[in-house]
Recover the amino acids of this structure.
């Protein structure tokens, strides 16, 4: 739709922007899935090869960082391409996730320290638990923020 | 902050989606501004000002708290 007042020459077509955002979201989810898969594989390899040296074990354990870094790069690009309200919603979600993870982690650590966390399978949240908690809280935070602005 | 974006849009018979397209933002952003749940950034406010050919203080004004 053309309008003499709009600066269409400088801006991308909205359909193109929507498509690009959808593709970027898909890419983001793909890297997240890849990180999860590599994490499970790394965990399996380290547990089933106890004779490996600490250097080798550390290297394998850090393998999920590679797709994780690509996830981060895609996430930052996606954030840059969003409009200002969408960016605000995502930042609200991230802040909710970060603060929530600190609170959940602190509670579990305190319970652990005083022997009240017998139901919890590990000492503290650990790496996988931290990622999972952050992801769940980010989803909740984004949903709350979307409702706030709709 | 209060605004008369809905009135200005209605005068031109644009839908929220059409206005969003002209500004390069999502329809949700237009809706949030119109319902005064979200105050736009200065660049977006200037885009609105240019699009509606109205000074900023004719579109946005402080509301009674």
């Amino acid at each position: 739709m053309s309008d003499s007042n709009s600066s269409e020459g400088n801006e991308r077509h909205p359909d193109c922007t929507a498509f690009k955002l959808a593709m970027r979201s898909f890419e983001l989810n793909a890297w997240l899935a890849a990180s999860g898969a590599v994490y499970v594989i790394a965990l399996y390899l380290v547990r089933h090869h106890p004779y490996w040296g600490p250097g080798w074990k550390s290297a394998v354990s850090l393998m999920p960082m590679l797709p994780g870094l690509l996830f981060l790069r895609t996430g930052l690009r996606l954030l840059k391409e969003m409009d200002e309200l969408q960016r605000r919603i995502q930042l609200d979600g991230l802040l909710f996730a970060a603060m929530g993870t600190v609170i959940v982690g602190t509670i579990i650590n305190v319970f652990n320290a005083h022997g009240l966390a017998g139901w919890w399978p590990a000492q503290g949240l650990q790496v996988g638990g931290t990622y999972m908690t952050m992801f769940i809280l980010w989803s909740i935070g984004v949903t709350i923020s979307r409702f706030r602005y709709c | 902050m209060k605004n008369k974006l809905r009135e200005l849009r209605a005068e031109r018979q644009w839908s929220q989606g059409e206005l969003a397209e002209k500004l390069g933002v999502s329809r949700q952003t237009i809706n949030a501004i119109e319902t005064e749940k979200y105050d736009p950034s200065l660049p977006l406010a200037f885009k609105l000002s240019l699009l509606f050919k109205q000074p900023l203080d004719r579109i946005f004004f402080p509301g009674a708290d």
